[in-house]
Specification:
Length: about 270
């Protein structure tokens, strides 16, 4: 089993990079299951729509995860109730529409659990993510409830992400961070066999400030006259990881960085 996880798709540049590359990369890299964080895929670089989600599924995405911007497009609250391939953070304050965990069937017949969590530090208020993760692993077990478990931890701080990685080590196939839009260079397998990277990076235009127009962002930092943030419009780069899984244990044999595009050093 080979899993491709791609970080936050930002605006039209990110969507176009998915459209132009994903189908071929799935074939080229013999990918069996694709998860993409899509919470910034909207026209304005925040939120996600039904149309964008459907496009992603058509390009080969199996599951879309999200985070703090999940509700930025008004239609999402209704759409998520009828589309179980779109997840929102599991630890949102209840009641919230949709789900943060689901089990899917991969093309090659395995049961894949996908869990979407959101950090507590510098993020929107949500339930304590460590308590939520603890409760989850008490109720769900690798190779019993599902063959593989992919965890998207949507959070701001590296420490919180690393801690959840170690906490879930041996209980998940992959723990990967999202939200900062910058890929970290700590791609590795943890002591008990879980593949890990602190942040997957974004799928979008890197000639920007985390996907947004750079001149406008700089002006905002200088407190000069500036518009509301809007996405950079250059060519998008895909960023994430590929995990080679052990079909017997459900843990990882290998993980490698997947970067394909124009501004970052490519790994694929
Ligand atoms: Fe986010």
């Amino acid at each position: 089993m080979r899993i491709l996880f791609l970080g936050d798709v930002v605006g039209p540049s990110g969507c176009k990079a998915i459209e132009e590359n994903l189908k071929y990369q799935i074939i080229k890299n013999k990918i069996d299951f694709v998860v993409v964080n899509g919470e910034n895929a909207g026209e304005g670089g925040v939120g996600i729509t039904e149309k964008i989600s459907e496009d992603f599924f058509n390009y080969g995405v199996d599951v879309i995860t999200t985070g703090n911007h999940v509700w930025d497009e008004k239609e999402t609250a209704e759409y998520i109730s009828k589309e179980n391939r779109l997840l929102r953070p599991h630890n949102l304050i209840s009641p919230s529409p949709g789900k943060g965990f689901e089990i899917y069937k991969s093309k090659n017949g395995f049961k894949i659990g996908v869990l979407n969590l959101m950090g507590n530090i510098f993020m929107k208020k949500c339930e304590n993510v460590f308590e939520s993760a603890k409760k989850f692993v008490l109720q769900n077990t690798l190779k019993k409830n599902y063959d593989f478990l992919i965890v998207d931890f949507h959070g701001e701080t590296t420490s919180e992400k690393m801690a959840i990685g170690h906490f879930l080590d041996g209980k998940a196939t992959l723990v990967i961070g999202t939200h900062t839009h910058v890929p970290t260079n700590d791609t590795r397998i943890l002591k008990n066999g879980t593949a890990y990277q602190t942040d997957a990076g974004m799928c979008g235009d890197y000639d920007s400030v985390i996907g947004m127009n750079k001149e406008n962002s700089i002006n905002k930092f200088f407190r000069l006259e500036a518009k509301k943030h809007f996405p950079a419009e250059g060519k998008g780069t895909l960023s994430g990881v590929i995990v080679d899984c052990n079909d017997e244990t459900g843990l990882a044999n290998d993980i490698s960085s997947f970067i394909l595009g124009v501004d970052l050093k490519n790994t694929n």
